[in-house]
TrEMBL record, chain A:
Entries under PANTHER family matching the protein: CYTOCHROME BD-I UBIQUINOL OXIDASE SUBUNIT 1 (PTHR30365:SF0), CYTOCHROME D UBIQUINOL OXIDASE (PTHR30365)
Name the UniProt record assigns to this protein: Cytochrome bd-I ubiquinol oxidase subunit 1 apoprotein
Keyword Cell membrane assigned: yes
One MF term in the entry's GO annotations: oxidoreductase activity, acting on diphenols and related substances as donors, oxygen as acceptor
Any GO BP annotation: aerobic electron transport chain
Annotated TM spans: 20-43, 55-74, 94-118, 130-152, 185-209, 221-239, 389-412, 424-447, 467-491
Biological source species: Litoreibacter ascidiaceicola
A Pfam family reported for this protein in Swiss-Prot or TrEMBL: Cyt_bd_oxida_I
Keywords: Cell inner membrane, Cell membrane, Electron transport, Heme, Iron, Membrane, Metal-binding, Transmembrane, Transmembrane helix, Transport
Coiled-coil region(s): none
Subcellular location: Cell inner membrane
GO cellular component labels: cytochrome complex; plasma membrane
From TrEMBL, chain B:
Pfam families for this protein: Cyt_bd_oxida_II
Family: Belongs to the cytochrome ubiquinol oxidase subunit 2 family.
Chaperone found in the keyword field: no
Protein name: Cytochrome bd-I ubiquinol oxidase subunit 2 apoprotein
Keywords on record: Cell membrane, Electron transport, Heme, Iron, Membrane, Metal-binding, Transmembrane, Transmembrane helix, Transport
Superkingdom, natural source: Bacteria
Protein's organism: Litoreibacter ascidiaceicola
Gene Ontology molecular function terms on file: electron transfer activity; metal ion binding; oxidoreductase activity, acting on diphenols and related substances as donors, oxygen as acceptor
Amino acid sequence: MELDIVDLSRLQFAMTAMYHFLFVPLTLGLAVLVAIMETVYVMTDRPIWRQMTKFWGMLFGINFAIGVATGITMEFQFGMNWSYFSHYVGDIFGAPLALEGLMAFFLEATFVGLFFFGWDKLSKVGHLTVTWLVAIGSNFSALWILIANGWMQNPVGAEFNPDTMRMEMTSFFDVMFNEVAQAKFVHTVSAGYVTASVFVLGVSAWYLLKGRHIELARRSITVAASFGLASALSVVILGDESGYSATHSQRMKLAAIEGMWESEPAPASFTLVGLPDQDARETKYAVHIPYVMGLIGTRSLTTDIAGIDELVAEAETRIRSGIIAYDALMTIREQRDATSAEVRGTFEAHSGDLGYAFLLKRYVEDPRDASEAQILQASNDTVPTVWPLFWAFRIMVALGFSFIAVMAYFFWRSSFRGQDYPRWALWGAVLIIPTPWIAAELGWFVAEFGRQPWTVDGVLPTALSVSHLSVADLLLTLAGFMIFYTVLFVVEMGLMLKYIRKGPFEDVEETEVWTARHEHRLRTHDGNVPFAETPAE
Amino acid sequence: MILHEFISYDILRVIWWALLGVLLIGFALTDGFDMGVGALLPFVARTDIERRVAINTVGPVWEGNQVWFILGGGAIFAAWPPLYAVSFSGFYLAMFVILAALIVRPVAFKYRSKRESARWRATWDWALFAGGAVPALLFGVAVGNVLQGVPFELTPDLFARYEGAFYAKFAGLLNPFAVLTGVVSLAMLVTHGAAWLSFKAEGIVATRARSIGSVAGLLTITGYVLAGVWLAFGIEGYAFTSDVVANGPSNPLYSEVVRTDSWLAAYFARPWIALAPVLGLFGMVMAVLGLRAGREGSTLLWSKLGIFGTISSVGLTMFPFILPSSLDPRSSLTVWDSSSSHLTLFVMLIATIIFMPLILAYTAWVYKVLWGKVTEADVTESSSAY
């Protein structure tokens, strides 16, 4: 198979984005978990909570460094590899990226230094504030980047300007409060919280199995299980399917996820498992559950869900309409201000479908010259490859439900069984550590692969979005990223494991000071000598 | 939204041109000393503890400083999409090298002191050196190329095409003038880093920083003057030949541009802009004198002034050009035809007016909390030091 610029650019973007997202969810969740732990420390004054804050905070730091570093690649890459995309939608897409810098990156990056270096320089409440600002900053950055991504899925608040040959913003509020973006934000952030909870749970379980740092591990499990249970419920219930009715490609994505070739009358059934066959246009051996798809896809029992075949027919209509828009656009470009009102009217009536005409550029230089066969081919191009979406979605959802079960179990043991955990459960918690990452990566795969053949749904095809580069350019950077990122990954994992094995730093002096300070209060509670077990072990 | 009509499009474009300068200068002033310290690391600090002192002078702040660069990228994307599209893809391999340096640097800061092994630490020290020196050099090289014009052209669809094969493009970037501006940039940030070390470090590290820094400062001054003369008499400039439509749509192909004898014309048209190079030179001279005399805080301020003047002089010389095209002058990107839409510029301006003062305030607060010198004791006693 010969790879062209588009394939290589996609490969590089997918690789660097998925790599970046190995670190992001843990940053998002661990920042909040650490802030919660420090809040308990400030409220109770017990050194064990400070020790927990510092320990998990250090692991946060190791992870954060690579998350930040690989994030820079993401921001550069739009311009480097997707320069026509950057030109074509930068007027809208660039704004949330810049806002992310203004509102979020500065906040987290400026205060993360103080989080590590400020323990002796700030008051307790001062330091706690810093920690929360880091957590808020990282979550804000997720908000803005998902507003940018949500716009690619559902490009609202913008229209095409023939003078500048690009999309321009018409309403910032529509872009910001895009329903797809908001749903994605809640879903993604919750997924990050689940990831961090599973991580904290798993590492703590390992300490319990080894009989080390019992106090720290038990408390950490309690925090992780409570926070994780709430987040796991949120990630499943507030999945980002709620925006799937919004646009053509979102509906196509939904139909592909479902392997639903023909439209179904409401309420549609959900295909639990099956074997989607792209050529035969059917899903074989399908096992259906009635009503569920209608509920997932439309949140109602009365809305019809379109199947792939119907959506392809719709795409064909829009391609024909897009050709009319393209024709008018060429006239406008030639005649500029002298263009007749009639041509401008035609353009405006069809400009929403202009992107569909661009789908033909894969086959002909000028979409107006496209043959019937090419139009049909381009309509079929709007169907993403079904089977990977079908399976990726199902694995992700199954994992999502299993997180609820795991977190509920540990929450129950923690709350009602005296923090006593059977060994098999602890081993289970250790073994499932990688699973939230798998779920998160699959989620992004469904979102992005499912949007193909578009970078911006209905507006700009992926094939047109790239830069004027050579295959040699791309092979060089692709190889560079692969080597470079592999080395970083090995180094990161090595450090992470080293510091997990080493365990928390125990400040004995601090604990003694605290004991002396609280001796009176502790003694009067039950009359016993304080600390049969020491607070920081 | 009607609100944005209150500020006219051309004024917004000038404001965003100035803000672009503010971001680049902000980046050079803050992350500039981090990169300078990185580039100085092998020379000012020889033992492990000296190196840790040098690293920890920037340890708590480099992360926030680097955001100036990230925000710069984001702001170019949001306010000048054609500039973002053309420059990032046109300088593809150079961008990749900068990217690699900027990725390795955060990791090096975080990981260097997390293991005892001498080889481990030496490797990361080299990473810090490269992570500081390479971008510092390449940013200057980029500026040198922008001043000469970059070989790209825009198709009627406004798709940017470049001339030359990929390796030729990269080699073409390293032409003599651009190498000179690259050296100026590197020397300038090394001077700035030295001023920072002289301010934040003690003893031998500060002493070595001062002596290397004053040499770098002199190199900056010489190189800058040399580049200025070369630019005035040896490099062609660009000018509009069609009427300037400052309020028009952002389409570079709507205007006509030709090459002129020199950028020097700008200084006859707007003599006041000569203030920028004068301030730049004055700041650098004072910084060198400060380094030699062992003054600490004021030296840092002088080197900041030097950087401010130097970077401003480039922008002011080229105004209204931002990225001229040597291949097809008509495709050149200028302030008047390569911005975002009126609405986007307005929205982003409001966001900047709200958040920039906040950012400056909390950044200042963080520096205040971290005020004072970093000593060897600080490094050995703290469990969180790098």
